[in-house]
Amino acid sequence: MDGAPSPSSPAGLSAYVAVSQLLGLTLLATTGAWLGRYRGGVAWQSPLKFNAHPLCMVLGMVFLQGDALLVYRAFRNEARRSTKALHALLHGLALLIALFGLVAVFESHRDKGIANMYSLHSWCGMAAFVLYLLQWLLGCGFFLVPGASFSLRSRYKPHHVFFGIALFAFSIATCLLGITEMLLFNIRDSYSHFVPEGVLANVLGMLLVAFGLVVGYVLTRDDWKRAPLAEEMALSMDFKTLTEGESPGGSQ
Fold first, then answer.
1. Domain containing 195: what range?
2. DSSP conformation class of 226
3. What is the DSSP string of 232-246?
4. Which CATH number do you get for residue 170?
5. For the chain, what is the domain count?
6. Is residue 119 included in any domain, yes or no?
7. Contact 72, 87 (CB under 8 A)
8. Is residue 69 part of a domain?
9. Dist. CA 176–CA 153, nearest whole Å
């Protein structure tokens, strides 16, 4: 059983989730506008293949990753099993899209004779992707695949939550590095003159920060966390008494 639904959504939670989605969609629209208006758009079988990289990374490593983190807040009244599956599915989709973006940049560099993995952005980007993949695999192993004990899941859960938020912040920071790198490559001489492309890219960077801050705020509000199930609370108490050398329900 998934247990009874938790109480109705706390005041303010729905508004913050709605703001996060508005910011996320604006973020994607701004990315598309930048690439379409100033970088020629996106086309796989052409020199424009590279432009799939920033679009995929913003969509996968920022927007979808952020939404996956918000699942347990936005759907706090839904069955936990369904929420858990949606959480894993969104993370998996984000990884798939990010992988597509990585292929795009490596193939584009190969076609143009540009070296790979020399910049700080590329190092951070590869680290973020590999750690995100590891986080997803461990999450599936502990929380979706049957077999992991409740005590083991309980011990791993705080680490899973912390690294989930940390990787989200790391992904946004890496995107900011990537935006700066693209601007320095393409408009190095005119960037300091407040040209429209530079201004739009700066707006994109601020939207990334704003999206991250709103998602982070929702995730760190203790009173907005989903209430634990009665079964989990009972198992937690049983585990505690067993580790203290007492039988569940015994005298103290």
1. 14-221
2. P
3. HHHHHHHHHHHHTT-
4. 1.20.120.1770
5. 1
6. yes
7. yes
8. yes
9. 34
The structure's pTM equals: 0.87
Burial class (CB in 10 A: 0-12, 13-18, 19+), 196: exposed
Q: Is residue 241 part of a domain?
A: no
Q: Would you say residue 248 lies in a domain?
A: no
Spatial CA neighbour of 212 closest among 183, 173, 160: 173
Is 91 exposed, middle or buried (CB count within 10 Å of its CB: 0-12, 13-18, 19+)?
A: buried
**CB of 217 within 8 A of CB of 169?**
no
Q: Which two tokens stand for residue 84?
A: 């858990």
**What does each of the 252 residues of the chain score in pLDDT, given as a tens digit?**
344 444 567 889 999 999 999 999 999 999 999 999 999 999 988 889 999 999 999 999 999 999 999 999 999 889 989 999 999 999 999 999 999 999 999 999 999 999 999 999 999 999 999 999 999 999 999 999 888 788 899 999 999 999 999 999 999 999 999 999 999 999 999 999 999 999 999 999 999 999 999 999 999 999 999 877 644 544 444 444 444 554 444 433
How close are the terminal C-alpha atoms of the chain, in Å? 31
CA distances to 34, 59, 143, 184 from 48, in Å: 13, 18, 40, 18
Among the listed residues 189, 35, 47, the one whose alpha carbon sits nearest the alpha carbon of residue 113: 47
